């Protein structure tokens, strides 16, 4: 079936911005939310963007010994926790070493 959802919509919008308006010129890969496989693929350069990522400090600022740092876009979805819970923020993640691309991705999210 066809993949749908907010994260997929952001991926298609990013593809359209990069590839002359064609939102279908992307390869979507599903990763488990229960492990770090998506971050491993992003760190190794196997993917350019990881969508639907939970913003976590352990992946930012090159704080992990097994990964370089990652940039997180402005969050596009906020979890529905109560006021006493830690807020979950979902965004697009890119590699920290590609500042120009990370900035472009963030601009797409803000648009």
Describe the fold and architecture:
The protein has helices spanning 6-18, 37-43, 99-110; strands spanning 50-54, 70-72, 77-78, 89-95. The longest helix is centred in the first third of the chain and has 13 residues, at 6-18. The model has no long low-confidence stretch (mean pLDDT 86). The chain has 3 helices and 4 strands. It is of the alpha+beta class and 111 residues long. It starts with 5 loop residues before the first helix and ends with a helix. Strands 1, 2, 3 and 4 form a 4-stranded antiparallel beta sheet that branches.
Quick synopsis:
Helix content is 29%, strand content 15%. With 111 residues, the chain is of the alpha+beta class.
Characteristic terms for this protein:
111 residues; 3 helices
Proportion in helices: 25-40%
For the largest beta-sheet, the strand count, sense and barrel status come to:
4 strands, antiparallel
Mean pLDDT over the full residue set: 86
Structural class: alpha+beta
Helical stretch tally: 3
Low-confidence stretches: none
The N- and C-terminal alpha carbons lie at a distance of 28 Å
């Amino acid at each position: 079936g066809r993949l749908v959802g907010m994260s997929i919509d952001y991926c298609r919008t990013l593809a359209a911005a990069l590839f002359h308006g064609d939102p279908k010129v992307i390869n979507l890969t599903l990763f488990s939310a229960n492990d770090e496989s998506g971050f491993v693929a992003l760190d190794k350069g196997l993917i350019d963007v990881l969508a639907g990522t939970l913003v976590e400090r352990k992946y930012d600022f090159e704080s992990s010994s097994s990964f370089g740092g990652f940039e997180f876009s402005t969050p596009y979805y906020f979890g529905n926790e109560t006021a006493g819970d830690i807020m979950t923020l979902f965004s697009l993640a890119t590699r920290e070493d590609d500042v120009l691309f990370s900035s472009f991705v963030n601009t797409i999210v803000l648009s």
